[in-house]
Write a structure and sequence with these properties.
CATH architecture of the largest domain: Beta Barrel
Order of helices and strands: HEEEEEEEEEHEEEEEEEEEHHEEEEEE
Shape: elongated
CATH topology of the largest domain: Porin
Largest sheet: 12 strands, antiparallel, barrel
Strand order of the largest sheet: 1-4-5-6-7-8-9-10-11-12-13-14
Low-confidence stretches: 1-25, 326-331, 477-482
Number of helices: 4
Structural class: mainly beta
Radius of gyration: 30 Å
Strand content: 35-45%
Length: 482
């Protein structure tokens, strides 16, 4: 093996060892917090999960005012109406992401409930089976478990989808099926698409979710006051995610959770989120007024805080799907004329001897060169020294060597993360890296096998030399003397 081949092999091994990024979640837009069950839309799950160790705490609530309240007997059938009821219901949850593969958490529903039945406690979790690196479809499975309310008569009661204890919801009736809603299992697919990148609208992404679930997603179909408009376990939703500036994202959502059509908006500013929802918008107002909390439109709110221990200052910047700017097309200049030197005998001089090698340009292409013992870099069919061809001819591409942010070794912000420079510059093999974006006019690359969110990126400093930037690296190092 030649010295150049050995050098390239060492570079490939080095890049491979540096690029062993964990199987991170795909670069999908940051999802809002659901009302009670971790990340998702308003009340339905999505295929993505929280990044590793990202922690969210969420408080939500809604107000319900019923002029008269339908009552049922042991058969599960309506028997009349009870008195008016005005209540404010609130719920809280804490969720955490694990290894970019799973998300889990706990919830408490009917916080501060002073009425009979007590609080409802819950566990929830989701496992990501597949998540696209770019546009595409993700898949996940998960489940939710809720305790049953406890009433004085010691009966077998079931939790309902609105999160408050309800003595009308039971696990068994004498004339109809009861609710098996304690455990809800589901599968969900989410399609992620890039939206507009310019024009009158801000940069935006879109997501569409479709899934099927048991338990809370379908139980109660035989109870008229509870299940009007149910979809036998199927649920769906869509969201428009809009970039509102540095560390700001606005999400507009609409969903059918198996029973209700909910719409809402969610604003995320550096991990501090607020949201508003219009719940059960599909239930029309009857002529004699609403008699069921489950079939009356309601206004709700949400407040949530996200904490990311792996990020600088524990901030959780919302992310959008990566935008890869099109490569600039460089039309190579014609090769230099071949220089033929005639000597005695009419033969041409042999080209200079050199070690074959290549350098990786910021265009993402390896360019063959010859390295001579005198230190010259020879290029082109005529093997001409590059120093003699400048400034008329130089390597193609944009480089960071003259940029102030590179010279000052500043931390750069890329795809919602802070990336700090490493201590050295080094050559890479263009076959081992892939362009993923641009920063201040300079292309940004990652290892081909890396998944988003990226933990490491590479920036071309000058032709053949690259700087590694690592997510969360904060300590500046002395500038590279080269």
């Amino acid at each position: 093996m030649t010295k150049g081949g050995a050098r390239r092999g060492a570079v490939v091994l080095a890049i491979g060892s540096l690029g062993l990024v964990g199987d991170a979640a795909g670069q999908t837009p940051t999802m809002p917090s659901t009302l009670r069950y971790g990340s998702g839309l308003i009340d339905i799950p999505v295929s993505s999960v929280l990044p590793h160790m990202k922690l969210t705490g969420t408080l939500s609530g809604f107000f319900s005012n019923i002029g008269r309240r339908v009552e049922v007997d042991d058969t599960g059938l309506p028997v009349g109406f009870g008195p008016a009821r005005e209540e404010f219901y609130s719920d809280g949850s804490i969720a955490i992401g694990l290894f970019d593969r799973a998300e889990g958490g706990v919830s408490v529903q009917a916080i501060g409930n002073g009425r009979a039945g007590g609080n409802l406690w819950g566990l929830f979790g989701r496992v990501r089976l597949w998540e696209p690196v770019d546009q595409g479809v993700g898949l996940a499975v998960g489940g939710r478990y809720l305790t049953s309310p406890t009433f004085a008569d010691g009966g077998r009661y079931a939790p309902g989808r609105l999160g408050f204890p309800d003595e009308r919801l039971r696990k068994d009736y004498t004339a109809t099926s009861g609710l098996g809603s304690n455990l809800s299992l589901y599968g969900v697919a989410t399609a992620y698409l890039k939206g507009y990148d310019g024009g009158p609208m801000p940069e935006n992404d879109m997501s569409f979710s479709f899934g099927y679930g048991t338990g809370m997603f379908r139980e109660g179909g035989e109870l008229d006051f509870y299940s009007s408009g149910h979809a036998n376990g199927w649920f769906m939703g869509t969201a428009l995610h809009m970039d509102m500036g540095t560390s700001k994202q606005l999400t507009l959502m609409a969903e059918h959770n198996g029973f209700d059509v909910n719409v809402g908006a969610h604003f995320d500013w550096d991990g501090v989120r607020v949201g508003a929802q219009y719940l059960a918008s599909n239930h029309a107002r009857p002529t004699d007024g609403h008699s069921s909390e489950y079939q009356k439109p309601k206004f709700g709110f949400l407040a949530s805080v996200a904490v990311c221990p792996n990020e600088p200052r524990w901030r959780c910047r919302p992310r959008m799907m990566a935008r890869i700017e099109p490569d600039t097309i460089f039309i190579p200049p014609p090769p230099p004329d071949t220089i033929v030197v005639r000597i005695a005998g009419g033969t041409a001089a042999a080209p200079p001897e050199g070690v074959p090698s290549s350098i990786c340009l910021s265009t993402g292409q390896n360019t063959p060169i010859l390295l001579t013992a005198a230190g010259d870099t020879l290029v082109g069919p005529g093997a001409q020294p590059i120093r003699l061809l400048r400034p008329a001819l130089d390597f193609a591409g944009s480089y960071a060597a003259g940029a102030f942010w590179y010279q000052d070794r500043q931390v750069i912000i890329f795809e919602g993360g802070d990336f700090g420079p490493s201590d050295d510059v080094f050559p890479v093999d263009c076959e081992q890296i892939l362009r993923v974006g641009v920063y201040s006019g300079v292309p940004v690359f990652s290892v081909v096998s890396a998944l988003r969110p990226l933990e490491m990126i590479f920036v071309p400093v000058r032709p053949g030399l690259w700087q590694r930037y690592e997510r969360g690296r904060r300590t500046p190092s002395p500038a590279d003397p080269s």
